[in-house]
C-alpha cells in the first residue's frame, strides 16, 4: 500500500479509493532532530470524486498541490536523517493544512477556478473526508512528533511551494520563511539564506500565519512548545529533479549549520 501511495504523492491522478492511511511516512526511523511535513505533496484525487469536475490540466496546477515541494522535502529528509510525513491526497479533496471546521478546508473556488465536486456537500460527506484524509494524516504527524520528542529535542518544519505570479502580480521572492509567535528557528534561517546575495528572501511572504496557513505547525509544534517554521519556495525554481535536489541540499545544509534553538554544540 505504501508504494502505491508514494506513487500518487509523486503526482498521479489515477488509482483506487482513498486508502485507510493518507499519510506517507518516509524515513520514519530517521534519527535527526527535525520532523518534516508536506501537506500539499500530491495532486491525487480518488476516482469516486470524478476529478472533482476538473480537467487534468487543472489538477496539474498549484490549486491541486505544491509542485516540487515533495522532491525538496525528500532530499531534506535524506540529508537530515529526518522523518517526513506527506499527504497522499490533493488539497482539493480536503486541505490538511486547514482546521477542518473552517469554510475553505474544502474549498469551493481556488485561484479563480470553481471546484464543482465540492459544491453542496452534505455534512456526512464533509465528515467522511475528514475521517479518511485529514485525521489519518494528522495522526501520522502526531506519531512522528511524539517519537521524536521521546528521543530528545525536536523541531517541526513544513515544506511548500508557491506560484511566481498570483492574480497578475509578480512575486519577487525566491523563498519565503513563515513563522508565528516563535522566531527561534526562523530568525537564524532567514539570516543564513540572506548570506546568498542572489536570493530574495521573504519574511512571512508570500503568506503569513494570518492567512491561516500555519495549522499543522501550530497544532503539532508551536502549541506544544516546539520550534517550528514553514518554508515556501517559488515553484518555477523547482521544475526539475535537479532543482529540487539543489534546494533540498541548500536548506538541509543551513539547518545542519544553525542547529536547534538552544543547541550550542559544535556544528
From TrEMBL:
UniProt xrefs under SUPFAM superfamilies: Zn-dependent exopeptidases
TM helices/strands, residue ranges: none
A Pfam entry, by short name: FGase
Keywords: Hydrolase
Gene Ontology terms, MF aspect: hydrolase activity
Domain of life: Bacteria
Protein name per the record: N-formylglutamate amidohydrolase
Origin organism lineage: Bacteria, Pseudomonadati, Pseudomonadota, Alphaproteobacteria, Hyphomicrobiales
Amino acid at each position: 500500500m505504501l508504494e502505491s501511495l508514494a506513487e500518487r504523492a509523486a503526482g498521479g491522478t489515477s488509482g483506487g479509493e482513498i486508502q485507510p492511511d493518507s499519510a506517507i511516512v518516509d524515513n520514519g526511523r530517521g534519527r535527526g532532530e527535525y520532523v518534516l511535513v508536506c501537506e500539499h505533496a500530491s495532486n491525487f484525487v480518488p476516482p469516486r470524486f470524478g476529478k472533482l469536475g476538473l480537467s487534468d490540466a487543472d489538477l496539474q496546477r498549484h490549486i491541486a498541490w505544491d509542485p516540487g515541494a515533495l522532491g525538496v522535502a525528500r532530499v531534506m529528509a535524506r540529508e537530515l536523517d529526518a522523518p517526513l510525513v506527506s499527504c497522499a491526497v490533493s488539497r482539493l479533496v480536503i486541505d490538511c493544512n486547514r482546521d477542518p471546521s473552517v469554510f475553505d478546508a474544502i474549498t469551493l473556488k481556488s485561484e479563480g477556478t470553481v471546484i464543482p465536486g465540492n459544491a453542496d456537500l452534505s455534512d456526512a460527506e464533509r465528515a467522511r473526508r475528514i475521517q479518511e484524509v485529514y485525521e489519518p494524516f494528522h495522526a501520522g504527524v502526531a506519531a512522528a512528533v511524539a517519537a521524536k520528542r521521546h528521543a530528545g529535542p525536536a523541531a517541526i518544519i513544513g515544506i511548500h511551494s508557491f506560484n511566481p505570479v498570483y492574480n497578475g502580480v509578480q512575486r519577487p521572492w525566491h523563498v519565503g520563511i513563515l513563522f508565528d509567535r516563535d522566531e527561534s528557528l526562523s530568525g537564524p534561517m532567514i539570516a543564513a539564506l540572506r548570506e546568498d546575495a542572489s536570493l530574495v528572501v521573504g519574511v512571512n511572504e508570500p503568506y503569513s500565519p494570518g492567512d491561516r496557513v500555519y495549522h499543522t505547525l501550530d497544532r503539532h509544534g508551536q502549541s506544544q512548545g516546539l520550534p517550528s517554521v514553514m518554508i515556501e519556495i517559488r515553484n518555477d525554481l523547482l521544475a526539475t529533479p535537479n532543482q529540487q535536489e539543489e534546494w533540498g541540499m541548500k536548506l538541509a545544509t543551513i539547518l545542519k549549520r544553525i542547529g536547534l534553538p538552544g543547541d550550542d554544540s559544535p556544528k
